[in-house]
Amino acid sequence: MPDEAQWRNERVQVSYGDSLDGYAAWESPACIVSDGAYGVLGFEGDTSDHLALPDWYEPHIAAWAKHATPQTTLWFWNSEIGWAAVHPVLERAGWRYVNANVWNKGKGHVAGNVNTATIRRFPVVTEVCVQYVREARVDGLHLREWLIREWKRSGRPMKEANTACGVADVATRKYLDPGHLWYFPPPEMFQKLCDWANEHGVPEGRPYFSIDGRKPGTAEEWAAMRSKFSCPFGVTNVWDRPALRGKERIAIPGGKAVHLNQKPLDLLTRIIEASTDEGDVVWEPFGGLFSACIAAHHAGRRAFGGEIDPTYYHYGLERLKQEVRPHPSI
Ligand SMILES: C[S@@+](CC[C@H](N)C(=O)[O-])C[C@H]1O[C@@H](n2cnc3c(N)ncnc32)[C@H](O)[C@@H]1O
Fold first, then answer.
1. Which atom of ligand 1 is nearest to the CA of 60?
2. Where do the structural domains in the chain lie, given as residue ranges?
3. Which residue from 76, 200, 216, 324 puts its CA 20 to 30 A from 34's CA?
4. What gap in Å lies between CA 243 and CA 111, rounded to an integer?
5. pLDDT tens-place string over residues 156-194
């Protein structure tokens, strides 16, 4: 057992042990960065192939679903086959697939250590980082179905949604579309639909567009019904970036890397900043050297992390302490 089984400062809290035992005490996340088993015996407890990954992840995925909100984004790092094996478990737990991002480490990653005459496949230089979100529902309905139901309940003609929103035709065509053209109304447009229905709708059906079941919904409540996302200009779903080497790579005296799976801070910063705002909570259940906690801290977010291996925890904690100041009350 490490001397400091738990450590925190004003923004980051990490603990030694199985994260399954920690989740209940962590604040609800806006973003979860999962970088766990890959099915390659990459660390003590990793499985020997992808077939065992669904069972390995299942309890974590269930816990993430339990503690997530409609605003939570999950970033699931893995190999292509590892992700493919776990995807059905994620879907069953209510995580909706958004996008697969590919980390391309480039040819330098295999140069000199692959014999293409014998491997019988093209050399692999990628990992995936897959974006999932929660599927929000009100009264058990998908948001699209719920908006249409509420508008119809108000008794107003469908076309009048345009008048309510002060637009030519986009409200009826997009916000009340029953199919794939549906578009999540911006919070200010939701507020207009809601105000109009409650003012002009048949009195006996009020309140309309009530998220809490008691009063008309608000723009703030509506904004909280989906995950945050912002895409920096020029970024696509292919991330060309060499594997980690040099100063950022944590090594023991003599030069050997402490953790083979240490992730680059810039890629973690990218996904954290894209899916959270300052002050939001990030979870790093498979901490390793706590790269996501450090990236979150530097970006002004708060973070909770766990690591089950005492050696990795020791080095991860040392790294954290160097990168971020401890809380004065500890
Ligand atoms: C792929 S590595 C993560 C590396 C990390 N992203 C970094 O940049 O250093 C996965 C880590 O999760 C840890 N781990 C595995 N199962 C765990 C669990 N149930 N709770 C906490 N940590 C766990 C492993 O010991 C390993 O260090």
1. 19
2. 6-136+227-323, 141-223
3. 324
4. 12
5. 999 999 999 999 999 999 999 999 999 999 999 999 999
Amino acid at 293: C
Residues with a CB atom less than 6 Å from ligand 1? 18-20, 35-36, 43, 45, 259, 261-263, 285-289, 291, 306-309, 312
- Helices 310-323 and 291-298, interaxial angle, to 10°? 20
Mutate to test the pocket of ligand 1, among 286, 291, 312 (most ligand atoms within 8 A of CB): 286
Strands 141-142 and 6-8: unpaired
State the CATH architecture for 6-136+227-323. Answer: 3-Layer(aba) Sandwich (3.40)
CA of 84 to the centre of ligand 1 (A): 20
pLDDT tens for residues 193-242?
A: 999 999 999 999 999 999 999 999 999 999 999 999 999 999 999 999 99
- In 3-state terms the chain splits into helix, strand, coil percentages (rounded to 5) of 35, 15, 45
Q: What are phi and psi of 44, to 5 degrees?
A: -55, 120
**Token pair listed for 98:** 């958004």
How far apart are the CA of 35 and the centre of ligand 1, in A?
7
Quote the crossing angle between the two packed helices 291-298 and 265-275, to the nearest 10°: 60
